[in-house]
Write a structure and sequence with these properties.
By secondary structure, the chain is an alpha+beta fold. The chain contains seven helices and seven strands. The protein is elongated, with a radius of gyration of 26 Å. The chain starts with 7 loop residues before the first helix and ends with a strand.
Length: about 220
């Protein structure tokens, strides 16, 4: 067999394909195909099993590997070095939103993607993160529950009822509104919504929304 580009990711894709065909590939067979030692193949299999949760087992009678669950599949990732650098910088820029549900979801996504892709592309992620920094004005904290509920209502086109404490008013006011857009302006999160009282579009600081209810009514 012609020697192939010897990267861990490509070997793992090949291991996956061979196991999926039901031929019970052995360590020696895989090592010979890729012209590497058997310890390298064993490390590849361990990585797939431990990090990618591949349901790989070894059949002693057939002397080869097989899947206990055929529905499992290799993560489909194709990314260039420049794209990975951009991904790392985007993560750095979004660190200011870590306290929002958005930040939690993004962190989970980045940990999965960067943890898997980084080792295959050969980029020093620690050096990139140390070489760039982002600073934004201090922002008022946003209630995570209100953020989550508000963003869902906006995506579903649901009218909301909320209590809002503006800077100029002495007491909070109640509004019935259609949430149209959420924007981050100079570090602060704002809601643009159409008021049912006057019909005009208002700009509200999400940090000043004290309570909110999803009415279930669509607009």
């Amino acid at each position: 067999m012609t020697k192939q580009t010897n990267t861990q990711f490509e070997r793992q894709v090949d291991i996956d394909l061979r196991i999926r065909t039901g031929t019970f590939p052995s360590v020696s067979e895989l090592a010979a195909a890729w012209e590497v030692d058997e310890r390298t193949i064993k490390r590849d299999v361990e990585f797939m099993r431990d990090r990618l949760q591949a349901p790989i087992e070894y059949d002693r009678k057939r002397r080869g590997y097989y899947y206990t669950e055929l529905t499992w599949g290799m993560p489909a990732v194709s990314i260039r070095e420049g794209e990975l650098v951009a991904l790392l910088l985007a993560r750095q820029a979004l660190e200011q939103y870590v306290d929002l549900p958005l930040g939690t979801l993004l962190n989970h996504f980045y940990e999965q993607v960067l943890g898997f892709v980084g080792r295959h592309v050969g980029v020093d992620s620690a050096k990139i993160l140390a070489s760039f920094s982002f600073f934004s004005p201090p922002a008022l904290p946003v209630n995570a529950g209100i953020w989550d509920q508000l963003s869902q209502c906006m995506m579903k086109n649901h009218t909301v009822e909320l209590r809002y404490q503006s800077v100029s008013a002495e007491v909070a006011r109640d509004y019935r509104m259609d949430p149209l857009h959420i924007a981050n302006i100079e570090g602060e999160w704002y809601l643009f919504a159409r008021s049912h009282y006057k019909g005009d579009v208002m700009q509200l600081a999400i940090s000043r929304i004290e309570e909110m209810v999803d009415t279930g009514d669509t607009f």
